[in-house]
Write a structure and sequence with these properties.
The protein is of the alpha/beta class. It is built from 6 helices and 11 strands. The strands form 3 sheets. Strands 1, 4, 5, 6, 9, 10 and 11 form a 7-stranded mixed β-sheet that branches. It has a two-stranded antiparallel sheet with strand order 2-3. A two-stranded antiparallel sheet has the order 7-8.
Length: 237
């Protein structure tokens, strides 16, 4: 899968979200998780098995962590032993109020798995402009995912993964751009309008133009490089 086709997979996932009308539906994850799992299976070869929703048996597998067992979005096994996992997060709304939770949960699940001598990778996809909904589905504002928001990931990107087991072996940060009307008054005002706007208008998902300066453990907007690093890490075990 190329970077261009990865963008298409993200587009299909977003389209599934529009059809279901809720970001909590697991159906929107299947075209994303499934295609990534299929691609990993193709590059790893027949000796390896890959498990995920939307691929193969359409089931996630548990990884035995040091402290607790955890179902993981994508798992890779070799000779019936799980040898690596990949967590996937596609954030589409209300990022600011949940940003610390996303980050802390990622650190916790990574440490649990990596301290049990199993490599763990993360894919984090987010739009550079996201709606913030209140509990009635009204959009109270549009949030920007800026370099300032990414500061904690910049710190993470400079970690030594041999020392810090809460840091994923590699993280793919994919920051996308969804076109919106330039004028604020023309933008969708609630969840239904937001879904209708993208359902009824032709648009292309593109990469964001924002400048994010990450160290070596975080790969920005380059799925092919991330997949190559994942492949070599697993093959070196």
């Amino acid at each position: 899968m190329t970077n261009e086709s990865f963008i298409n997979v993200i587009s299909n996932s977003f389209s599934a979200f529009l059809e279901k009308g809720t970001s909590r539906s697991t159906d929107k994850l299947k075209p994303l998780h499934g295609k990534i799992a299929e691609d990993i299976a193709n590059i790893m070869g027949k000796e390896y098995k890959v498990f995920s929703q939307g691929y193969g048996d359409d089931k996630e597998k548990e990884i035995n962590g040091r402290y607790y067992d955890k179902k993981v979005d994508i798992t890779i096994s070799y000779k019936n032993k799980i040898v690596a996992g990949v967590g996937v997060k596609f954030v589409q709304q209300n990022y600011a109020q949940n940003s610390n939770n996303y980050f802390e949960n990622m650190l916790g699940e990574t440490a649990n798995i990596r301290t049990n001598q199993i490599p763990y990778f993360q894919i984090f996809i987010i739009s550079d402009t996201l709606p913030h909904y209140n509990n009635k589905g009204k959009i109270t504002k549009y949030e920007q995912f800026t370099p300032h928001n990414a500061e904690k990931y910049v710190s993470l990107s400079n970690d030594n993964t041999d020392t810090y087991f809460h840091t994923p072996n590699k993280t793919l940060m994919y920051v996308i751009h969804l076109p919106l009307p330039t004028l604020q008054e023309n933008r969708p005002k609630n969840r239904d309008e937001y879904i209708r706007y993208y359902s009824e208008n032709d648009f292309n998902i593109e990469l964001s133009n924002d400048n994010f300066l990450f160290g070596s453990t975080v790969i920005l907007n380059d799925y092919e490089t991330f997949r190559e690093k994942l492949y070599h890490t697993i093959k070196s075990l």
